[in-house]
Design goal:
Elements (H helix, E strand, L loop, with lengths): L11 H9 L6 H16 L3 E6 L2 E3 L4 E5 L6 H12 L7 E3 L4 H8 L12 E6 L2 H5 L2 H14 L7 E5 L4 E5 L3 E8 L1 H7 L2 H4 L2 H5 E5 L17 H16 L3 E2 L1 E2 L1 H13 L9 H22 L4 E2 L1 H16 L1 H8 L3 H15 L4 E2 H9 L5 H13 L3 E4 L6 E4 L8
Parallel strand pairs: 1-10, 3-8, 3-9, 4-5, 5-8, 11-12
Antiparallel strand pairs: 1-2, 6-7, 13-15, 14-15
Helix pairs in contact: 1-2, 1-10, 2-3, 2-10, 11-13, 12-13, 15-17
Length: 398
């Protein structure tokens, strides 16, 4: 693996990826953790004026999405190893409710630390951290409302507590880890197709069993790289001011904005409209990765456009899955399982798998009949000796 120059001029993302090393953790997880570190370091102390007098800050909401044991927790732990001792970054990791989050945000800073209105919210297991049902729905709607921060104080008055919370200078960064099924059990369907997922960056990944590291491969200079990372983040956490853009960068932005194709899927309209803001947020973060300069050039804009395009391209499958009814969602559960299995799968194994997710025997039979008729699954045998296999050729059978 390539070792960075380690002379203080390294791109911070390159430095971070060298720190993360090579392992079975999807590299896109480490990339977005790094972008979240940079965004959390500067919080709302740097900004871009997309409109005069209105500050666009580089804060991010990121969800690492993948099956259990794929490396979401490892990526987040590696990120926190960089952030943990930063005196100007507050992070909260654990269970949280909407009222509880407001309590955290209202906490004042102490001993030189910023107020907790500048927060990195960390929820490595989303379903455990925010729960389900009414409590989860309330928190998601609250985070959606608070995404853009506010120049005005955020207030909450409760009759039961008889107190008024007053939160000023608000800026939240959020990174979450979840499986697709848990995400959809915690996030209401109307939030997935509506305003929430126009704000959340979904980073999906799947198992790659051809990639095997019995131990992660890290640089011999790992400790030096980590120290440099922490030092670079500390410099960013003291940075403040407005970003400017070169003339070439502005021209590149205008060309991209005016020529990008309109979405054909109505569920992507909100994400499409917010992509411009996401692109500019990423441009600020990518510029900061090169150094503490507050100038965005044309090459940075091009990279930010490409990265934001990749985010939007990956959203349709997740949104479509989120829009399913509980019955049709079983198609996705069965499909994901069979796609990952090598060879035929006994009916009993599939039934056990899906029963753990709330599907009874009759529901499983209906799901499998539908997948067979769609040509996605090959069915062989009869009765208790029935087997199913993912059909990459798409030919109907059984």
């Amino acid at each position: 693996m390539t070792t960075p120059k380690l002379d203080g001029t390294d791109n911070l993302i390159d430095l971070y990826m060298a720190y993360a090393g090579q392992s079975e953790v999807p590299p896109q997880f480490h990339l977005w953790c790094c972008l979240s570190v940079i965004a959390s370091a500067v919080s709302n102390k740097v900004w871009l004026e997309k409109m005069p007098g209105k500050k666009l800050t580089p804060n991010l909401y990121v969800a690492l999405i993948g099956p259990s044991a794929i490396g979401k927790g490892e990526a987040i732990d590696a990120m926190l190893n960089v952030v943990r001792d930063q005196p100007k970054i507050n992070f909260y990791r654990g269970k949280v409710t909407a009222p509880g989050l407001l309590d955290v945000l209202a906490m004042p800073g102490k001993n030189g630390r910023p107020s907790w209105a500048h927060l990195l919210l960390v929820t490595p297991e989303l379903s455990w951290s925010i729960g389900r049902g009414e409590w989860a729905d309330g928190l998601v709607k609250q985070l959606t409302e608070l995404y853009g921060g506010s120049i005005d104080p955020v207030r909450e008055y409760t009759r039961t507590r008889g107190t008024t919370l007053r939160i000023t200078d608000l800026c939240i960064n959020w990174i979450a880890g979840t499986t697709r099924e848990w995400l959809l059990s915690s996030i209401p369907p109307d939030s997935i197709s509506g305003g929430f997922f126009g704000r959340m960056v979904a980073v999906p990944a799947d198992y790659n069993f051809d990639l095997r590291y019995y131990r992660p491969i890290v640089s011999a200079d790992w400790e030096v790289i980590l120290a440099l990372l922490r030092a670079r983040v500390a410099v960013l956490s003291s940075l403040a001011g407005a970003f400017g853009m070169t003339a070439d960068a502005l021209a590149n932005e205008q060309k991209w904005y005016e020529e990008r194709p309109a979405p054909t899927d109505p569920d992507l309209q909100a994400a499409y409209k917010r992509q411009h803001d996401l692109m500019l947020k990423l441009a600020m973060i990518l510029s900061l990765a090169d150094g503490p300069s507050l100038t965005i050039n044309s090459s940075i804009i091009a990279k930010a456009q490409k990265l934001s395009d990749s985010v939007v391209r990956k959203m349709p499958n997740l949104i479509s899955f989120g829009a399913m009814t509980p019955e049709t969602r079983g198609l996705g559960v069965a499909e994901d399982f069979l796609r990952r299995c090598a060879g035929p799968v006994p009916h009993s194994m599939l039934l056990k798998r899906m029963s753990n997710r709330g599907y009874d025997a009759d529901s499983v039979r209906k799901v499998m009949q539908t997948l067979v008729e769609m040509g996605k699954v090959t069915r062989t045998g009869f009765g208790k000796g029935m087997f199913y296999e993912w059909n990459a050729d798409g030919k109907k059978s059984g």
